[in-house]
Amino acid sequence: MRRSLAFALVSALVLAGTALAAEPGFTPPEPHSPNAEAINDTYNWVSIFTGAIFLLVQGALLYFIVRYRRRRRPRTEDGAQVHGNTNLELAWTVGPVLILVAIGA
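and the corresponding structure tokens:
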């Protein structure tokens, strides 16, 4: 297991290095027109915003993995199932729609 993980990590680093060899950095080239500058600004804004969401989600995932790891319950038993929380369902439907509207504006 450790050997496979080490191989995967080294492979990922090698692939990232080859991507950086062609164009240093992960940003697009410098813009040379007003339209290209607007596209570059949008790219930067979306990258920062999605990076922040990614970090929040991964932090919450790690917290819940540690907090609710299996203890006394058998592996075959499912946890409590919750259905019908309309406010929550509306929130996670309207939230992404508002984000997409902000990106498109």
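(Above: one complete record from the training split.) The chain has three helices and no strands.
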